[in-house]
UniProtKB/TrEMBL annotation:
Annotated TM spans: 12-39, 59-77, 97-115, 127-147, 159-181, 201-223, 235-257, 269-290, 302-319, 339-361, 381-399, 430-452
Protein's name in the database: Cytochrome C oxidase Cbb3
Entry GO terms, CC: membrane
Main location group: membrane
Family: Belongs to the heme-copper respiratory oxidase family.
A Pfam family recorded for this sequence: COX1
Sample GO molecular function, one term: heme binding
Domain Cytochrome oxidase subunit I profile stretches: 15-467
């Protein structure tokens, strides 16, 4: 093993490389399906249709790019914050192989139409069972490393890591409970409104435990590393952590407003969703206040741009999300293009910007080189920022127009616009969304090339840099 202080860094390298591969797949598929919406003739049945490709896009993005990167950085961060080598490098190596097998199986089975039709839980039971095995291996290795740590103090990142390990396990097991009827088909163990309630308890908390707690763990670790100054308030981070974990678990039913679930369940979810603004913005302020006297680094340090814009998008997400949980606003924008605009600000803005920074920071230290091109990294930042903003803003505008047209009525109460008339007005926005995706893809390709050159031909470090 190529280790520093006995750390299992070769495994980290493997997860980073493969997460970038799956991230490229996710964005390529995402750009393609954005063109399919704008140009329906690009749907080629049966395998290359929007209905088959869309779950491949979400699974490759959230689980391939997201979870793959999180596994890399959980291993990297945990060893350094505990000052302890990974409990079992051999187990981690098996985890890397199984991770890629699971993601590949997910892509193949979804392309073949094997789909449970549950958001973020589409995988049929044989593949879903492998996910459970994968997560148990991962969780045991990280937890045992923390248990035998040599550093008594547990930094805030470790709290978020542990919450992720436990939260994902509970959510996935409960929502994926199913009754198999064949090797390729199963039915949910729940029915009707109960099934919907369990699904969105899982669905929204998958956002919490996959797209919130892991990037926060990474942000809290890499912002001080990148800036050279400590986090503003560790205590505020810990208080916000416990508040966030408690509140998030009650919010899932805000996806079911106006649905046939009890009103008190909807109201409870709505209330806790609004309260989530406080602990979420505590993390945002922690990041901003850490920059006191250091804002010049936004110009001088390319890593800081990724991290601070990332946490800013997180803050915007946690204002939009609670707003969408309010009944009147939800009735207006639900089932419109506003929602993918909101979601992609989180995935392309918050999560991916933080991961880009973490990879830029980590790879040179793992390979004992310098970043191949900082100007190229800056160009990558501006391209992905521009692409993401074009994507999100056009979808917000499209969503508002779409909602206004769908809700417009004549004096006699009949609908003023037909569904087809409404859809026809959205095409210009769909063209712009596809263009934004192409710009984001260009930035991603620049990033991948920069990392490739850093690994293969980057200048040797003048001195060993601390991890």
């Amino acid at each position: 093993m190529n280790q520093q202080d006995g750390y299992a860094d070769d495994i980290v390298k493997g997860f980073i490389i493969w997460s970038m591969v799956w991230g490229l797949v996710a964005v390529l598929v995402g750009v393609f399906i954005s063109f399919q919406i704008a140009f329906p003739q690009l749907n080629f049945p049966p395998y290359l249709t929007y209905g088959r490709l869309r779950p491949i896009h979400t699974n490759a993005g959230i689980f391939g790019w997201g979870i793959g990167s999180f596994m890399a950085f959980f291993i990297y961060i945990t060893q350094r914050l505990t000052r302890t080598s990974l409990w079992s490098p051999a187990l981690a190596k098996a985890q890397l192989w199984l991770f890629n097998v699971v993601i590949a199986l997910a892509a193949v089975t979804l392309a073949m139409g094997m789909n449970r039709s549950k958001e973020y839980a589409e995988l049929e039971w044989p593949v879903a069972s492998l996910v459970v095995v994968l997560w148990v291996i991962f969780a045991v290795n990280i937890v045992m490393t923390i248990v035998k740590r040599r550093e008594e103090q547990m930094y805030i990142s470790l709290w978020y890591i542990l919450a992720t390990l436990v939260g994902v396990a509970v959510l996935y097991l409960v929502n994926n409970a199913s009754i198999p009827v064949s090797l390729t088909k199963s039915y949910s163990a729940y029915a009707g409104a109960n099934d919907a309630n369990v699904q969105w308890w899982y669905g929204h908390n998958a956002v919490a435990m996959v797209l919130t707690t892991p990037p926060l763990a990474i942000f809290y670790y890499f912002l001080p590393k990148a800036t050279g100054v400590p986090i503003y308030s560790h205590r505020m981070g810990v208080v916000a952590f416990w508040s966030l974990i408690f509140m998030y678990l009650w919010t899932g039913a805000h996806h079911l407003l106006w649905a046939p679930v009890p009103d008190w369940v909807q109201t409870l979810a709505m209330g806790f969703s609004v309260m989530l603004i406080a602990p979420s913005w505590a993390a945002v302020f922690n990041g901003y206040f850490s920059m006191n006297g250091q804002w010049h680094q936004m110009r001088e340090n390319y890593l800081v741009k990724f991290l601070i814009f990332g946490i800013t998008f997180y803050g915007m997400q946690t204002l939009q999300g609670p707003s969408q949980s309010i009944r009147t606003f939800s009735a207006f924008i639900h089932f419109t293009d506003w929602v993918p605009g909101h979601v992609h600000m989180g995935t392309l803005g918050w999560v991916s910007l933080v991961l880009f920074a973490a990879i830029y920071y980590t790879v040179p230290r793992l390979y004992h080189t310098e970043v191949y091109s900082i100007p190229m990294a800056n160009m990558h930042f501006w391209l992905v920022l521009t692409g993401q903003l074009i994507f999100s803003i056009t979808m917000w505008i499209a969503g508002v127009q779409q909602a206004a047209m769908l809700n417009a009525t004549n004096p006699d109460g009949s609908l003023h616009y037909s569904f087809i008339e409404t859809m026809a007005e959205l095409y210009p926005y769909w063209y712009m969304r596809a263009a934004g995706g192409v710009i984001y893809l260009a930035g991603l390709l620049l990033f991948l090339y920069n990392i490739y050159k850093t690994i293969t031909s980057g200048k040797p470090q003048a001195a060993v840099q601390p991890a």
